[in-house]
Amino acid sequence: MTSNISFSLDGCELDGSDVERLHRVLGSYNRTRLQPSLPYVDSNDDVIRESQVRQAEIAYINAVRTEINVSPKEVPQQANAFVDWFESLRAVGPGQGDPLFPWLENSCNLEQMKWFLEQEVSGEAGFDDLVALTQVKMPLRAKLEMARNYWDEMGRGSPKGMHGPMLENLTRHLELKLSPQGVVHEAVALGNAMIALAQNRCFAFHSVGALGAIELTAPTRAGYVARGLKRLGVPAAKLHYFALHAVLDVKHATAWNREVLHTLVAEDPRRAHAIAEGALIRLWHGQRCFIRYRSEFKYNRDNCAGPRRQLCASLA
Q1: d(C-alpha 78, C-alpha 240), whole Å
Q2: Which member of 21, 32, 138, 256 lies 3.0 to 4.6 Å from 143 by CB, making a disulfide possible if both were Cys?
Q3: Distance in angstroms between the alpha carbons of the first and the last residue of the chain
Q4: Mean pLDDT of all residues belonging to the chain
């Protein structure tokens, strides 16, 4: 899929023949990429690095677009029909209904749950920051809904309600080991893909679709994880992040689909294809993570169809 990707970063030559190495180098760069800093001598080198990374990102995302192979003819361009198509991904999109999550709820032990969370937290690109990057110069109505979403992520101005610190609270309670070396490359690739979509304005509408896919599909998974944590004895105050997202993201998805997706497609139907591709890119990466996690747990019952087959089912 990525064999046509090649780039050099700080003298390190990389190509798509080693997907894991490619994503680990990109992941290492992304961990500091968006950090605020002061001017320093090597700023010109940073411009060169950023150019190299963006070329690799664009090549990678285009390779994934080819992999999922969504024809514009397959995606409705009328706004109401498109929202219906998008919402169907909750049931039939790549990775949906994966047996990993009922197993986490009912069967895994604490160490297995901790390993799973280490993967998820370490690969997290930061939904709040991704929304902030994506909303730049978006049309007014879509921009306002993204702002409301961001404000919820920020706890509506209350530090105790901020979603990021909630997750950090659980991380500290469980003493999770958040080491980049301990994260499987599929989880690294997911984070890299989300940053690539949000950072490169040629994929801005893809990022809208990817973020919408998270809001659409996360509540079910969050509910499984919250119930699994409760079964394993984690206090309710510590699992608030997952319990909240099991409920709040349902409301977020409804508003996102109405205020962002519907208005963007109604204004310009060509955006439907880009939004659809972005959603499937996010779900495709998630599916790869779930399959890898199950293989690590030696739980390999794979009832997940490939992305192409599930896409076709959603169009039936």
Answers
A1: 38
A2: 138
A3: 27
A4: 89
